[in-house]
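Same chain as my last thread, 200 residues:
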Amino acid sequence: MSQRQGVELSYEDGARAVELAREAVESFVQHGQREQPGSMREAFYERTGAFVRLESTRGRGSLRGCAGGYRSGEQLGHVIVDSAIEAASEDSCGSEVTPSELPNLTVSVCAVKNVVLTDDPLADLELGTHGIAIDGAGEGGWLYPTVPVENKWSAREYLDRTCRKAGLPPTAWQDDDVVVTLFEGQVFREREADGSIEEL
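reply #2:
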């Protein structure tokens, strides 16, 4: 099991990360432009991975877009902007976010802290702490650290569902040619659309 240290964000860093992701989504959706990170907080110069999730507050709510990666050679500020734009694009959940949806979207950001390559994911996985990325047969997929807690999944179910998201059979995480990576991340999100921000 190998581990790599990432970045530790303060609450102010995390709140700004979510604001930056929202600004990037709004700039892309309304004007088709890529938002520049501008004057970045010191932590945003660290080279680490990040993920952005967009969720609709309409009706029962639903995932509207998600994008990112657990490893990156780019600075965190740029990773957040690029992930936010990708999450809002048609490449994420099949259709591009429209301007009319913006008031009903909540934004969350997961900044990667530690990356763990594991040979025994069921033993090493800590629910609520680890996100999962699965790569195999030319396919890949990932899920946030908070997802299994939100859905009351067991560790095995969390692994199975990440495989399905990657387009693989549910038990593919047990195959020798499938790479399972666990990542720890700090998750910050809007409590409501464009509202106050909390750390999970």
